[in-house]
Amino acid sequence: VGAVQSGSFDSTDVVPTTVRIAGTMRALRDSVLDTVEHRMRALASGLAISFGCKAEVQYNRIAISLVNHEM
């Protein structure tokens, strides 16, 4: 689930100065959450460098990993 916000419907032919991307991520292990966070930061940084702009990543861990225990 996610969202992308940028530009304006009033001027669709203008490149926006800011783009916001948001979403949710869930995993069964903390190590997967660590990997996803690391890759998101690396991808944002690499894309920003390639386009000559800057990126800021805010990665908020709101929920803990889901761990099912067998009974």
Task: Outline the structure in words.
By secondary structure, the protein is an alpha+beta fold. The protein has 1 helix and 2 strands; from the N terminus they run ββα. The chain has one helix spanning 30-51; strands at 2-6, 19-23. A two-stranded antiparallel sheet has the order 1-2. The longest helix has 22 residues, at 30-51. The radius of gyration is 16 Å and the shape is elongated.
What are the main properties of this structure?
alpha+beta; 14% strand; 71 residues; elongated; 2 strands; two-stranded antiparallel sheet
State Rg. 16 Å
Which outline best applies? Answer: elongated
**Which runs of at least 5 residues are low in confidence (pLDDT < 50)?**
none
What count of helical segments does DSSP give?
1
- Mean pLDDT metric: 88
> How far is the first residue's CA from the last residue's CA?
32 Å
Structural class: alpha+beta
Q: Could you estimate the helical fraction of the residues in percent?
A: 25-40%
Strand order of the largest sheet: 1-2
Which secondary structure elements does this structure contain, and how are they paired or packed?
Layout (H helix, E strand, L loop, with lengths): L1 E5 L12 E5 L6 H22 L20
Précis, in short:
The chain has 71 residues and is α+β, with helices and mostly antiparallel strands. Helix content is 31%, strand content 14%.
